[in-house]
Amino acid sequence: MAIQLKDLDQLKVMRRAGIVVAEIHQLIRDAIKPGMTTSALDAIASAHIKRSGATSNFLNYHGFPATICVSVNDEIVHGIPGPRVINEGDVVSVDCGAIIDGWHGDAAFSVGIGAIDAQDQKLMDVCEESMWVGIAAGKNGARLSDIGFAIEQYVVSQGKYGILLEYGGHGIGTEMHQEPHVLNFGKAGNGPTITAGMALAIEPMITRGSAKTKVLADEWTVVSVDQSRGAHFEHSYTICPDGKPFVLTSLDGGRAELARFGVEISDLLA
Ligand code: MG
Ligand code: MG
After folding, report:
1. Spacing, Cα 18 to ligand 2 middle (Å)
2. I want to staple 95 with a disulfide (CB 3.0 to 4.6 A). Which of 32, 105, 108, 158 is the partner?
3. Kind and range of the H or E element at 259?
């Protein structure tokens, strides 16, 4: 399958989907607190999708039974919202998506609940920064594997973390998951050249211990086999027709974060 290239009008619709996802993130960050169930977070996302005129890309995806994924502590990704109660000190990873007029957005974050372990905070900080490092590396004219190379180099430089090998980022557009698969590790200089119109979801997943995972009996929840805690950050970004990047699922398009790397975002989607 060829990589789907989007024109500016299509990217404008993807931006609308991305804003819905960014708003869900904000609503959940504002609401999440000890004593809440993970299904209460799902309800927040579901209500916002409805009032935004969007639809859910997660609900019924290969049978997934909810609007978002909520993964707590040693659960790293694909946790199913339900009666589980969120406690002080937990690390909660929330993955959200939305569709507007057939175009998808997909983004995730991890957050500590109340007072948390300093090493858990560092886990999340390293994961989040590795995502920005990866997006900054995935500039117009770079090779696809430059992204995973940059992510891995950064994570390794920060300490002993497990980088999940079986899961990674992906192309996104008229489907949530498209070609190409984006590894979070590897050598630089391989794979397709990143060009205008590509849209990629960059999503490092790391643990404080082993990178080995297993899937629980619910057939979705991915946990670390050594029960170490995990973090997951994700944004969907594109290269605009002017050759500059734009983070579709960030409210400011990634302007502030990418500026730290000397990367200027496009004004075409602002
Ligand atoms: Mg996601
Ligand atoms: Mg994704």
Report:
1. 12
2. 108
3. helix 255-259
2: left (phi over 0), alpha (psi -120 to 50) or beta: beta
Asked if residue 243 lies in contact with residue 169, where contact means CB atoms within 8 angstroms, the answer is no
Tally of structural domains, the chain:
1
Ligand nearest the Cα of residue 232 is 1
Residue 270: predicted pLDDT: 86
The residue range of the domain holding 210 is 8-259
Is 58 within a domain? yes
- C-alpha to C-alpha distance for 88 and 34, rounded to whole angstroms: 5
Please indicate, yes or no, if residue 265 is contained in any of the structural domains.
no
In a domain, 268, yes or no: no
Distance 63 CA to ligand 1 centre (A): 16
- Dist. CA 58 → ligand 1 center (Å): 9
CA 198 to centroid of ligand 2, rounded, Å: 15
Distance 150 CA to ligand 1 centre (A): 20
Q: How far, in Å, from the CA of 235 to the mean position of ligand 2?
A: 8
Q: Answer whether residue 2 is part of any domain.
A: no
Q: What is the CATH number of the domain that holds 225?
A: 3.90.230.10
- Taking a C-beta distance cutoff of 8 angstroms, is the pair 245, 258 a contact? yes
Long-range contacts of 190-193 (CB under 8 A, 24+ apart): 190/143, 190/144, 190/145, 191/143, 191/144, 191/145, 192/3, 192/143, 192/144, 193/141, 193/142, 193/143, 193/144
Q: Which pLDDT score, from 0 to 100, does residue 113 have?
A: 98
Q: Give me the residues paired with residue 239 across strands.
A: 245
Position 108 scores a pLDDT of 98
Measure 170 CA to ligand 2 centroid, in angstroms.
6
- List, for the chain, all residue ranges whose pLDDT scores fall below the cut of 50: none
How far does residue 120's CA lie from ligand 2's centre (Å)?
Answer: 22
